Structure formats: C-alpha cells, structure tokens
Amino acid sequence: MRRRFSKGVIAIIAIVTVLAVAITVGIFSLLNRAPFRDLGEGCKITTPEGSLELEIDQAQVASIIAAVAARRKLPERAVVIAYATGIQESKLVNLPYGDRDSVGVFQQRPSQGWGTPKQLTDPVYATGKFFSALVKVKNYRKLPLHEAAQRVQRSADGSAYAQHEDEGKILAAAFTGRVPNAVNCWFPAPTRTPTATAATTGATSPPPADKARRGLVHALGSNATFDATSPEYGWLTASWAVAHAKKFGLRQVRYGGQAWKSDNGEEEGWKPDSGAPKSKVEIS
C-alpha cells in the first residue's frame, strides 16, 4: 500500500531540508574561506618555499603568532608547528566557538585549564599558552611536526597536523621576517573622517600609527618598537603592520628600500622606494 503524507508533514520536511542545506552551505563556506577577490581585499604570501593566499583576518593571526614567538625568542620551527596546528584547528581564524567548549585559533578548552573564553579569543594570549606548552615538549624541534603538535593539543587525531607543514613553512618564512617583503595585503584605502565623539565633544581619535603601535606592543611586549634592530625584526614588524593595516587604518608601510600601499592591489604589492629607511619601519 502506498503511504501518503499530509500537507503539514510535507511542509515540515521541506523546512527541515532547507535549513539543513543552509547550515551545510554556511559551514562549508566557513571551512573553505571562500575566495575574496570580489571583495577587493585579501593577502598573498610569497616566499621561495611557495605562496599562499589568506583573508586579512587570517594574515593578522599569522602575524601575531610570529610576533609572540619573537617576543619569546623562539626558533622558526616553533612558529611552523604553531601555524600547522592553527590551520588544522581553525584555518587561522579566531573562532568564538568550537567542539564542546573549544574556542580561538588553537581551539583550546577553558575546562582543561587553558584560560577563560575571553582570554582564549585573544590570539596573543592563546598563542602564548600554546608556546608555553610547546617548549615543555622534550626535543620538540627534532620531533615530527605532528608529534610535537599533538603533545600540546592532545586531539582525537594528531596525525592531521602533518598535512599543513608546508603551509606552515611558507608562513613562517614570511611573517618571521626571514624573507623580505613577502606579505602583501590589499583593500580599498581607508577614509579618515572625524569620529562622532570628536564632533560632539571635541575629542579626537588617536592617529592610525599610534593605534598600530599599541597593537604591536600588545603582541611583542612593552619593548616593542618599529625601529629595525635587525633586518629580520624590521621585516617582521613591517609584515605585522601590513597585515593589520586595514584594522588600524594604515595606508602605507615603508622599510628597507621598499614601500607598500593598501590600494596597490595583489599584483603590485611592495615596490622599490629609494627613500624608504633601513633603520626603522615607517607607517602612516
């Protein structure tokens, strides 16, 4: 006998199907970080090891990881391990949610003593906690990447970290400053207008460069500066500034005979600039 469904049941099935498709599409879009070219913004990382494309928020997280490693004077291998872990756990996105109570770039769990949800959604704090655990892993520099990462994360499948090692090496070469002018981000030039506060109280918003300096201090510590104490440090801070340019409203970064502008686009990136200083990173 052929079973018939009432119109009400059919309507419920249709609604459930539509919701399931919508949720699936949303999750797929988040996990795959759809192309951003139509948005007129993005980042490209170019090194001898290869190239990668990132969204701006991913580049910001990547630059923070390198900055925290520099603050702790950690080797590039530690940075590679952190990147591979972050890519596997969150695709280098500072997620406010995750499996059970996991949050943040490394999907650390407050219930396991990593910190509060608020702390763990600060990439500077989360990265610091990751490195604090990593340096306690005996011979972590010589271990296969997935073994070192797994001893920190203790995830269900530690072997998954290994697949991101090459990406981690590309990002580490760029954001640690070992490869010059390797980070290029682009977006429409910011429009600087008086804030509502300024209009009503006469107060003025801090200049973009001042905001950027405060952000750098948060990542690198109280001794952070845009003075280039070494070429690697100069390019590390230049790359950090480029990655955070949209957030802080920067239009230009100059260093080491090169200049970057926010609206130069993917193909132009850094350009030779004979006036760009070698002793410090200029931001504006």
Task: Itemize the secondary structure elements and their pairings.
Layout: H1 7-32, E1 42-47, E2 50-54, H2 56-71, H3 76-90, H4 117-120, H5 123-134, H6 145-153, H7 165-175, E3 183-186, H8 196-201, H9 208-220, H10 231-243, H11 245-248, E4 252-255, E5 258-261, E6 271-272, E7 282-283
Antiparallel strand pairs: 1-2, 1-3, 4-5, 4-7, 5-6
Helix pairs in contact: 2-3, 2-5, 2-10, 3-6, 3-7
Low-pLDDT runs of 5+ residues are 9-38, 195-201
SSE series: HEEHHHHHHEHHHHEEEE
Mean of all residue-level pLDDT scores:
87
What's the count of strands?
Answer: 7
Give a description of the structure.
The protein has 284 residues and is α+β, with helices and mostly antiparallel strands. It has 2 domains: 40-175, no CATH class; 190-283, no CATH class. The protein contains 11 helices and 7 strands. The longest helix is centred in the first third of the chain and has 26 residues, at 7-32. 38% of the residues are buried.
